Amino acid sequence: MKQALKILGCFVGGLSLVAGLFFFLAYQQLGAPTAESEWTWQVVKRKSEIARSTQTNKLLIAGGSSVLFGISAEIIEKETGIPSVNMGTHAALPMTYHLRELRAGLRPGDTALLILEYELYDRDEEKLDEVQLDYLLSRDHEYFLRFPISQQIKILTQTRIDRIWSGLMSRKKNPGPMRNSIYTTTNLNTHGDQTGHFKALRPSYANFDLSSGILVSGLKNRLSVHRTLEEFAGWCRTNRVQLLATFPNRATNSLFRPYVISQVESDFSFFYRSIGVPLLGSISESILPKEEFFDTVYHLSAEGQHSRTQRLVQHLRPFLTTMSIPPSGPDNRPARPIPMAPLPNQ
């Protein structure tokens, strides 16, 4: 019996030692830049600078890379006369992160347009993928350290050992940015738009076969992040920011079903109406032929970006012409669950 307890004690002690070493090394590599996170970090930083340097009433357009590649803030500004900034970054970042960056650039009298990818509406933000983990640990570790210790530990246990090791190696030698002709901040214009992504330059690695669970089977979690968006809408009302939304750009796919797409459009319309946010256009304007895209199902080509933006301008113009900013004051409406109709059985 004593021998068994001794073995058990050694086993537990060994596990504790390994766990302690893992967390020690994990905290040691926080803030070490990685090549994989360089492009996203540079894009976030550049767009934040553009937004904060624009002193007059402006339009900020938020979303992932479907906004970065697919919407032209430059065209919107030329067509409406309202200073416009493309805040699109990377859809792998959580919705709360997109809204945090957007909020930091907004001032009373501004307008915010949400064009968030479908996956952001249905994602469990407690479960981070490799891109999110890499960015959080390497580029936004101060934000990470503001989490409760229990949440920090939960996040670190999702991190692979080889990622911890690469972070430690980056402490010794900055790996520098990834080399890719299109994914550099030199291709951003002064409005934060992606440039140079013409159809004629479509790369050989382009892949347009990726489907979308939401457009195939619907919003299973029924807009699980509605509380986050409702709170943000309340913040906008309190701070006299006009908030608008529309559907994200997406390449069509043979697996998409018209009745599911119609249900998703109805869910979006019902939800945004319930929180007092105008939803611009229709879902059919954003689900586009693959030929219009550059290298992924989210990234429109420069030609597709131009035509998509021109259509969007027609919906935006009435709101930007009148700049109908809501009155300031506290927003005391309680957050509430949003009932959604079930998908039809087909």
Helix content: 40-55%
Q: Given the helix and strand composition, which structural class is it?
A: alpha/beta
Low-confidence runs (pLDDT<50, min 5 residues)? 327-346
Order of helices and strands: HHEHHEHEHHHHHHHEEHEEH
User: In this structure, how is the largest beta sheet organized?
Assistant: 5 strands, parallel
Strand content: 5-15%
| Average residue-wise pLDDT | 83
Under CATH, the topology of the domain at 31-127 and 184-322 can be stated as: Rossmann fold
- Based on the structure given, which CATH architecture of the domain at 31-127 and 184-322 is correct? 3-Layer(aba) Sandwich
What is the fourth-level CATH superfamily of the domain at 31-127 and 184-322?
SGNH hydrolase
Number of strands: 7
* Spatial strand sequence of the major β-sheet: 2-1-3-4-6
CATH class of the domain at 31-127 and 184-322: Alpha Beta
- Radius of gyration, taken over Cα atoms and rounded to an integer in Å: 22 Å
N- and C-termini, Cα separation: 63 Å
SS field, number of helical segments: 14
- Overall geometry comes to globular
Question: How does this structure look, described?
Answer:
- It is globular, with a radius of gyration of 22 Å.
- Helix content is 48%, strand content 6%.
- The chain has a domain at 31-127 and 184-322: Rossmann fold (3-Layer(aba) Sandwich).
- The chain contains 14 helices and seven strands.
